[in-house]
Write a structure and sequence with these properties.
3-stranded antiparallel beta sheet, 4 domains, about 15% strand, alpha+beta
C-alpha cells in the first residue's frame, strides 16, 4: 500500500495529489494497515485533521474522528519510552484478562515499571507535587494520562469498583506495537500447507459451502504468504545496511549467525523450503482449482453458497468474485517461484557472499597481532618455500604443528579401483536324476499330500464339527504348513469341509496365521 505524499508548502500536505490537511511542520509516517500517523515536530497538539487513504478504491476516512484526537501525543513526548512501556503493560493486562480492575492495572504498572518511574523526571508533564513524590503517585499519574489521551476508559461495575475498558482502536494499535517489537510472533510455514489441506479436505466431500470457503481461505492464505515473502526480502536488505556500518569481525559474525541466521534463515527460509514448500504443493493446489473450474455445476453451487453467505449482493457478483479469486491464486502460485522465491534466494546469496568478503577484508586489514598472524599463515600455506620461511621467522614466532584425533581419524574412505576384465567363469549345474525327483515327490505326497491334510483336519473335528485357528497347536514348521494347507484344500470340490475367514491374526510361538474357522459340511 503506497501513499504519494508531497509538501506543497510549509502548511499544506498532499496525499495522492490532493490537499488533505494543514499543519505546522508535521511528519507523516506510513505504517502497517495503511494507517498514517502524524507527529508534530514542536510537540504541539494537532487539530482534527482529515487524512485521505488510498486503499483499493478511494475510501474516505476521518482518522481523528475514529480515534481520540490526543491519542499519539504521549508517543511524541520526552517520556515516550515510559509511555511505550506502560502501553505494553496495558496490552498484557488486556490480553490476559476479560475484565481489568483499575487496582490490578495500577499494581502491574507499579511493579513492572518501578525503576523507570523512579528514574523519570516528568519534565513538561502536568503532574502535581503529590504525584511526583513517590513511585505510587507517578503510577497513578501514568494511568490518568493514558486515560485522558484515549488509550483506555473506565466504567463502574456492579460491585462499585472501577474497571478498565480498552477501545477497539487502542487494542489494534497496541497489538501492532507488540508485533513490531516481538518478531517471533510471525511464522512462515503454514500458509501453503494450509491452502492445500483446506482445498484437499473440501475436495473429498460434496459440500459446496465447504469448497466455497476453502477458496476464500486459499485467497487469504496466499495474500498472507506474499506479504510474508516481501517481509523476508526486505529483512535481508536491512541486514545489508546493518553490515555496512560494522567495523569489527566479531560483530559481523554475531550479526550473521545470531541475528540473520535465527531471524531470517531458521524462522522463514527453512520453513519455506521444507515445511511450507511452494514447489511441493503448487501443482496439487492448481490441479484442484482446475478441476473445480471445469465443473459448471459446482461453480453454480458455490456461487449460491457464497450468495447465501452474503459475500456479494447478487448471485452473478458471487460467481465473478469466486472466479477472480481462483484465477488470482493460480496465477500467484504460477509466478511465485520466479518473482519471489528466486529473488529471495538471490538476496540471501548476495548477503552471504558480502558477509564472507567483509570478514576477509576486516581480518586481512587488521593491523594487530591477529591480522599479522593471519597474513603470515596465508603466506606460508601458499609458498613452496614454507620450510625456509619458517626457519627465518622462527626466532620471532614460535610455531608448532598441531594435530588432533576425531571419530574419523581411524577410518579411510574406500578407494574405488578399476575392475580388470577377465574371462567369464563357467558354472556347471549338476542335473538331478528322474529317480531323485520321483522320490522327492513321493515324500511330499506322503507328508503334505491331500490325504495327509484330510487326516489332519479329521483329527481337528474329533470333538465337534468346527475348529478355530486359535485352538490349533502350532509348535513346529510341520504344524504351521498343515494349518495353511488345510485352508487351501478347503476350496476343492471333493472337500468335506469349508473355511470361513475371520478378522485379525493369531500368533502362537513364533508363527502367525490369519484367524479362520473350519466347518464340516453336512452329510460328510
Amino acid at each position: 500500500m503506497f501513499f504519494n505524499i508531497q509538501w506543497e508548502n510549509p502548511s499544506t500536505v498532499n496525499v495522492n495529489d490532493e490537499p488533505v490537511f494543514h499543519c505546522s511542520q508535521s511528519i507523516v509516517l506510513p505504517l502497517r494497515c495503511g494507517i498514517l500517523f502524524e507527529s508534530s515536530l514542536n510537540n504541539s497538539r494537532l487539530n482534527r485533521s482529515i487524512l485521505k487513504l488510498s486503499i483499493g478504491d478511494y475510501l474516505h476516512m476521518k482518522l481523528f474522528e475514529a480515534v481520540h484526537q490526543d491519542l499519539f501525543t504521549v508517543l511524541a513526548s520526552p517520556n515516550r519510552d515510559l509511555y511505550a512501556s506502560a502501553l505494553e503493560v496495558l496490552f498484557e493486562a488486556y490480553h490476559d484478562n476479560l475484565r481489568i480492575p483499575e487496582s490490578s492495572l495500577y499494581s502491574m504498572l507499579r511493579g513492572k515499571l518501578e525503576r523507570q518511574l523512579a528514574e523519570s523526571t516528568f519534565e513538561g508533564e502536568d503532574i502535581d507535587d503529590e504525584e511526583l513524590r513517590d513511585v505510587s503517585g507517578r503510577a497513578r499519574f501514568l494511568m490518568r494520562k493514558l486515560c485522558s489521551r484515549g488509550w483506555f476508559e473506565k466504567e463502574r461495575g456492579k460491585d462499585f469498583e472501577e474497571y478498565i475498558i480498552v477501545p477497539g482502536y487502542s487494542s489494534k494499535l497496541m497489538e501492532l506495537f507488540y508485533e513490531l517489537t516481538h518478531e517471533e510472533t510471525m511464522r512462515g510455514y503454514s500458509y501453503v500447507f494450509g491452502t492445500y489441506s483446506s482445498l484437499k479436505v473440501s475436495q473429498e466431500g460434496d459440500n459446496a459451502y465447504e469448497k466455497m470457503t476453502s477458496i476464500y481461505n486459499a485467497y487469504d492464505n496466499t495474500q498472507a504468504l506474499i506479504k510474508l515473502l516481501k517481509t523476508v526480502y526486505h529483512n535481508v536488505k536491512r541486514f545489508f545496511q546493518l553490515q555496512i556500518e560494522m567495523r569489527d569481525v566479531n560483530q559481523v559474525l554475531a550479526s550473521h549467525y545470531d541475528e540473520f541466521g535465527q531471524r531470517v534463515i531458521e524462522r522463514y527460509i527453512r520453513p519455506l523450503k521444507i515445511k511450507d514448500s511452494v514447489p511441493k504443493y503448487r501443482v496439487p493446489i492448481q490441479l484442484i482449482l482446475d478441476e473445480w473450474l471445469d465443473d459448471d455445476g459446482l461453480l453454480q453451487a458455490m456461487s449460491i453458497a457464497a450468495f447465501e453467505d452474503k459475500r456479494k449482493d447478487t448471485l452473478e457478483q458471487c460467481r465473478i468474485d469466486l472466479l477472480e479469486k481462483v484465477f488470482w491464486v493460480k496465477e500467484q502460485y504460477e509466478r511465485m517461484e520466479i518473482e519471489y522465491l528466486e529473488e529471495i534466494d538471490l538476496q540471501v546469496r548476495r548477503y552471504t557472499r558480502a558477509t564472507t568478503q567483509k570478514i576477509e577484508n576486516l581480518t586481512n586489514r587488521d593491523q594487530n597481532t591477529r591480522g599479522n598472524l593471519n597474513y603470515l599463515l596465508n603466506a606460508l600455506s601458499q609458498s613452496r618455500r614454507a620450510g625456509d620461511l619458517l626457519d627465518v621467522i622462527q626466532p620471532a614466532f614460535q610455531l608448532f604443528s598441531q594435530t588432533y584425533i576425531s571419530e574419523r581419524s581411524l577410518w579411510y574412505r574406500k578407494r574405488q579401483t578399476k575392475r580388470e576384465k577377465t574371462d567369464p567363469v563357467l558354472i556347471e549345474e549338476e542335473s538331478i536324476s528322474e529317480a531323485a525327483k520321483a522320490e522327492a515327490n513321493r515324500l511330499l505326497d506322503v507328508k503334505y499330500g491331500k490325504d495327509a491334510v484330510a487326516a489332519y483336519v479329521r483329527r481337528l473335528f474329533i470333538h465337534g464339527d468346527e475348529a478355530y485357528s486359535q485352538n490349533l497347536l502350532i509348535d513346529d514348521d510341520h504344524e504351521y504348513l498343515m494349518s495353511l494347507l488345510s485352508v487351501l484344500n478347503s476350496t476343492d470340490q471333493d472337500s468335506f469341509y469349508r473355511t470361513e475367514t475371520l478378522e485379525g491374526r493369531h500368533r502362537q510361538n513364533a508363527y502367525t496365521i490369519p484367524r479362520f474357522r473350519l466347518v464340516r459340511n453336512k452329510g460328510d
